[in-house]
Each structure stands twice: as structure tokens, then as C-alpha cells.
Write a structure and sequence with these properties.
The protein is of the alpha+beta class and 319 residues long. It is built from 12 helices and 8 strands. The protein has a 4-stranded antiparallel sheet with strand order 2-1-4-3. A two-stranded antiparallel ribbon has the order 5-6. The N terminus is likely disordered.
């Protein structure tokens, strides 16, 4: 953005002679491209005088060099490869000895999913390692506080014209209203692994943050979130698309029954219902990622089309 192509043109009073034109000709055709802006006035007094002794005045004309096009080309390449490679690598890692480390990342998403579901239903919650403490009774104070926070966040986004965040705030508000009408107990339990997949999908989606967003400007941050999201999602996805006998039924020592056992024993879900609902949610997440992936490619391609090549810019600048 700060780089400029600078063209020097000459004006002389009176007009320069043929010999001077030959002397200055190479400079007239020379284009300087660098990242430093010229300081001072629009006219540069460079050495050289006309036949009458008048100082030759060189004027500069600045126009953006195609850095935006180069950035868009690089971004298109990243968007083509990043998400598929992240999911592929995550799938490969899931079959190695690093599976336990990935499980720790997924556990953070899992407990966060429990906590967020509890907050949306109006219950206090405190996510910890391997367990999330939460209240059994709904508190309308918590409902009002969460609603106020969502509305305030949406209002601040509207003031700053961050329309994506305005839409996100509206979606969360609608989700809260829907969740308040559903049975809270089973929902909180289900959104352990369910919340892990949704949160992991959101982390992967941050890779497509707009150019002016800090997630984009902090180059390594969005890549890190993409990797964490892909690893966490794939860990949970493989559990619910794998053999039924590998599902984590039973009791967690010192805690309680596992989530699948709670949903089947306490809330009466069949194993088929349990698996189908998790698979359905994972499919929705993958479809959302596919749509986002396609949109990312199209938007990056359109950005390239909107920024002319360096050859086009040279032609336009010489007119």
C-alpha cells in the first residue's frame, strides 16, 4: 500500500534544446519503483538548465504499484491449499502417536462447548480440564446479561460498520432464543463434542478474515487458528464416524458418566440417534466450510481481476 511507482516528467521554461533532450532523455524514460515516498513539493529541481539558463523543473506523478494484485495472487494460492491441507494433515496426525496431544486441544473445545451451551440456556458454567461445572436451574439474570452483551457487541459493530460482526451478533441472539426453548440438560451434554466441532469450524473460518481485520494482518495468527481448528475438528469427527464399539461409553473416573452414557442412560437417546445427530452436525460444519472455501476462492479471484497487472498500469500511467 505504501509503495509507489514514480514517473519524472520535465517542464522547461523556455523549452529545452535537442541536445538537452538527448541528455535528459534516458531519465525521462526511467521509472523508479520503491517503498519510500518522496517528500516535499510536487516539483523537484534537478540539475540541468535550458539554453536560456532557466532551471529545468521535474515533476513527479505517483501511482500505486501492483502490490494489491501480488497480495491477491498470494492469497488465492493460500486459499486453494490451506483448508484442504489442514484437514488432510489433521487426518494423518490422528493416526499417529500425536493423537493424545490433539485430544488435549479437542478437550478445550469440548469443555468450552459445554460452557457456552449452559450460558445460552441461562445457567452459570465454569469450564475446567476434563469437566465443566454448571448450574442446574436457569437464572434470568444470566439470560438478560448475555442478551445485553450480545446486543451491545452488535451495536458497537454497527457503529464501526463491521457488518460481518453485526450479522454474527444477530445470529447468536437468534440462537439464544432457540436454545431457551429446548431441553437444557441434554443440550448441554450434547454440546460437548457438538460444541467442539462448531468451535473448531469457527476457528478454521477465521482464515478467511477480511484484509483489514487484525486476524489477517497478524499473518501467523490465522494460520495457527486454522491448524488448531482442523486438528480439533478431525479428532472429534473421527470418533463419531468410526466404529460404534470405539465410542467413549462408560464412566470417567472421579467425574461422572461420559457424555454418550449420560445421553443414552439419563436422557433416553438410542445409540443410533446419538451417532446420527453428531454425524449430522459434523456434516453441517463441513458443508459450511465447503461454502466458505468456494466463496474464498471466488472473492480472491475477483480481487485479482479488479487490480490491473503491472503491464496494464504502465500503459495507463504513460497515457
Amino acid at each position: 500500500m505504501g509503495a509507489y511507482a514514480v514517473f519524472l516528467t520535465v517542464e522547461a521554461w523556455p523549452p529545452i534544446t535537442v541536445s538537452e533532450h538527448l541528455n535528459h532523455g534516458p531519465l525521462l524514460q526511467h521509472k523508479l519503483t520503491h517503498h519510500d515516498e518522496f517528500k516535499g513539493t510536487d516539483e523537484l529541481n534537478l540539475p540541468g538548465t535550458t539554453a536560456s539558463g532557466a532551471m529545468t523543473k521535474w515533476k513527479r506523478t505517483a501511482c500505486p504499484i501492483p502490490t494489491l494484485r501480488n497480495d491477491a495472487l498470494r492469497e488465492l494460492k493460500c486459499r486453494i491449499l490451506a483448508l484442504p491441507l489442514a484437514l488432510l494433515v489433521a487426518r494423518l496426525v490422528a493416526g499417529t502417536g500425536l493423537r493424545m496431544a490433539v485430544g488435549m486441544l479437542a478437550m478445550v473445545m469440548h469443555e468450552s462447548g459445554h460452557a457456552i451451551a449452559a450460558w445460552l440456556t441461562g445457567r452459570w458454567a465454569a469450564p475446567l480440564l476434563w469437566v465443566t461445572l454448571h448450574g442446574e436451574e436457569r437464572s434470568w439474570w444470566i439470560v438478560l446479561a448475555l442478551t445485553a452483551a450480545i446486543v451491545f457487541g452488535g451495536f458497537q459493530a454497527w457503529k464501526r460498520e463491521r457488518w460481518g460482526w453485526v450479522v454474527a451478533a444477530g445470529a447468536v441472539l437468534i440462537l439464544q432464543l432457540i436454545v431457551l426453548c429446548l431441553p437444557a440438560g441434554a443440550l448441554i451434554v450434547f454440546f460437548g463434542d457438538g460444541g467442539a466441532m462448531v468451535l473448531a469450524t469457527i476457528l478454521m473460518a477465521t482464515f478467511y478474515a477480511p484484509r483489514e481485520c487484525q486476524l489477517y494482518k497478524a499473518w501467523g495468527l490465522r494460520w495457527g487458528l486454522l491448524v488448531i481448528g482442523a486438528l480439533s475438528f478431525m479428532h472429534v469427527f473421527l470418533i463419531w464416524t468410526g466404529p460404534v464399539e470405539d465410542l467413549p461409553f462408560g464412566e470417567i473416573e472421579g467425574v461422572n458418566l461420559s457424555d454418550p452414557s449420560l445421553l443414552t442412560d439419563m436422557y433416553g437417546w438410542s445409540v443410533t440417534q446419538l451417532v446420527d445427530r453428531y454425524v449430522l452436525l459434523s456434516t453441517v460444519c463441513l458443508v459450511a466450510l465447503l461454502v466458505l472455501y468456494a466463496w474464498g476462492l471466488v472473492s480472491a479471484y475477483l480481487e485479482i481481476r479488479q487490480n490491473p497487472s503491472s503491464e496494464k498500469q504502465r500503459v495507463l500511467a504513460n497515457r
